[in-house]
Write a structure and sequence with these properties.
It is a single chain. The chain is mainly alpha-helical. 81% of the residues lie in helices and 0% in strands. The protein has eleven helices and no strands. Helix 5 packs across helix 7 and helix 6 packs across helix 9. The protein starts with a helix and ends in a 12-residue tail after the last helix.
């Protein structure tokens, strides 16, 4: 072995140099991704507190954040019980939307006659406002939770279905021809070709449907006007409005907002875990 070949082999085996500047820049961006939103929210809350105190705004008009926090602590047990009701309603409706949207979307992608027969009904349910459908559902469905679940499911269902169908049809036609050439079965085509193609579309729809399921649950409860102990945060908001308990109403609104943020973060994390290693939408590029 010549010295030149030894040098070439050692150069090939040597690890690439670490770009410390790029690592520091990536670490700084990760820190800013958390610090900037938290700092902005803290600044907004502080400004809110100052303006209420400075202008001496009555608490029955706009309560200060400190009063909302104390109300949240004082009314914690009842509000958390209602929050758990809303959480269950939201998650159940989202799960049903995922199951129904994916199954029906797969049927639409595999069978054109099925799509032409059923897709108009899905469009009609989507374009009809839920506030117009909810009273009918509440009349025909006697169980309140089931009626609210159907209303929330209707709101979250269509984005899953629509994006799943678009994703299943976005597969490269050359790959379709290749699977046809090898005489792949419909199940093999769906599992190994269509599903990976539709996955980015489905994860995008999941982020949308997560928020819509919460909106559908709250709106359906507003329309139902349900009251009592076994009800959600929307009922607490309605009760607080009638009793002129504005701080309690704001506390319930804060819980609803926190639930929405939590759902968005969970769906974003799921998208990162599923797509982060191979899809361009989640892969981090060095700048």
């Amino acid at each position: 072995m010549t010295p030149t070949s030894t040098i070439d082999e050692s150069a090939q085996e040597a690890p690439p140099p670490v770009n410390m500047a790029a690592l520091a820049r990536a670490r700084r961006q990760r820190i800013l991704a958390w610090v900037l939103p938290v700092a902005t929210i803290a600044l907004a809350v502080g400004l809110w507190e100052f303006l209420v105190w400075y202008h001496e705004v009555p608490h029955y008009l706009i309560p200060a954040p400190s009063l909302i926090w104390s109300t949240l602590l004082a009314e914690g047990p009842s509000l958390m019980q209602s929050a758990w009701f809303t959480v269950r309603l939201t998650l159940f409706s989202l799960a049903l939307a995922i199951i129904g949207g994916v199954v029906l979307g797969a049927l639409f992608a595999l069978s054109r006659p099925v799509e032409m027969s059923l897709f108009p009904f899905a469009v009609i349910l989507q374009v009809t406002p839920i506030v117009a459908i909810a009273p009918l559902i509440l009349i025909y469905v006697h169980n309140t939770f089931t009626a609210l679940l159907i209303c929330a499911w209707l709101v979250a269902f269509f984005p899953i279905l629509s994006n799943t169908v678009v994703g299943l049809r976005s597969t490269d036609h050359n790959l379709r021809d290749l699977f046809s050439l090898y005489r792949a079965t419909p199940w093999q085509r769906l599992r190994h070709l269509l599903s990976p193609s539709a996955l980015p579309y489905f994860m995008a729809a999941l982020k949308i449907a997560g928020g819509l399921s919460l909106i559908g649950a709250v709106v359906a409860e507003f329309v139902a006007g349900a009251t009592g102990t076994n009800t959600g945060l929307a009922s607490r908001i309605i009760e607080s409005r009638f009793r002129n308990e504005i701080p309690k109403m704001f506390a319930a609104l804060v819980l609803v907002s926190l639930m929405g943020v939590a759902i968005f973060l969970m769906t974003s994390l799921a998208s990162k875990l599923v797509l982060g290693r191979w899809h361009e939408s989640e892969i981090k590029r060095e700048t």
